[in-house]
Amino acid sequence: MASPFLNPHPRQLYVVHCFDGPSATERLSSVADPAPNSPNHRRMCGVHRVECYEEHVAYQLSTSKPKHDCFIQKVAAAPKLAKDGLTIVGSSFLLRGTQEECSRFIQNDPYYKKSVWASVSIQRYLDSSSTGRAFPPTKLLHPVPVKRTYGIQPIQGDQINGALQLHAGTA
């Protein structure tokens, strides 16, 4: 019997977590929605993030067009906030595509190229809400028997627990 986790279709959902480096993060101002390039927007996003903001937005818009080299279907995209709700600490995406397309999309983003994002994680996302099926946690964690040594699985290359890890400057 085939595993319910192995989808033969190559274009699947991936969740992407991008975490800003310390130079990109600052507290939000009290202004709800500051205009780009305003002093309040600079406080909201940090100087480094603002320097790349226009280029990042243009890239995000252009990659939504099917003719773009780095086209990707974005199911959701938003900044990540710290617990205080006032500090942008990164970005999150829910993307539909292959792992290679998702990686190429992220590596060509100005925030990645200019090291606003200090680390990026790309991991397959299983949307059980669309199937109406709930998966037992043990099946999610280990769909295929894995030989383990002292409970630790060796890390190979850039694969860490099934997540592709990208680090700024190693494209």
UniProtKB/TrEMBL annotation:
Highest taxon of source: Eukaryota
Designated name of the protein: YCII-related domain-containing protein
Source organism of the structure: Seminavis robusta
